[in-house]
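tool_call: predict_structure(chain=1)
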Amino acid sequence: MMTDQWASEDQLSKALAEVTLKCDELQIDLLLIGAFAVRAYAERRRLTTDLDFVAPKAAQNNLAALFKSLGYDYSSRTRLGNAQAVKHLDAGKVQVDIAIDVILDQSTGKVYPIPDESFRQKVKVELVPLGGGPGVEAYALPLADLLVSKLLPIRKQHAADAVVLVLGGFSPNTIADFKRKVRNAQLAEHINTRLGEIVSLSERAIQELMSGYTGGRLTGQEIRILRRRLRELRI
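tool_result:
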């Protein structure tokens, strides 16, 4: 019997593996941008109920064939402007949301166009499910672009993602890449505001944010490191 309950972590991991294999077969760039992408770069992880990707516009015509071949219902454009694929299983549904060429935040109206170079710089990662088990190989958006995408919205979930990414650490090259891409997208003012908002959070607010989305807490030293790194990211 089919159900509208969300897929389990194991089901999502299996679906991700199938999609990645098919992308390799068809030579389609489909890069993770959601919670699974954050896991590629950070130790702290949060639960998720779906898979989020970004694809270049050139791949748009091939996405329907890709997902239909895997048994998904595919829509090229939802009310939010993204493509979406849904597969109903006996024990849950797998939902895949796909941004095309740009990441649009509905809450702020801000848009981050993914540079062509970022698709060329895609990162192959191995993701371990929260419950353990074998890792799954997939492709993620480069770290600099992923952080930009997490600083576009004003939602707490994305602020938590930004925090764990920043605590994961950046190389000087990644910081320079981040600042260059923010400038090129003309998002410096918005991103600086978002960085400042997170820096100004009280320790209690940061702990509530982390416990609410990752189930963990930060040490006092980690909070100091977080604030210093956020300031270093200002453009």
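agent: Residues 9-232 form one domain. Proceeding to next step.
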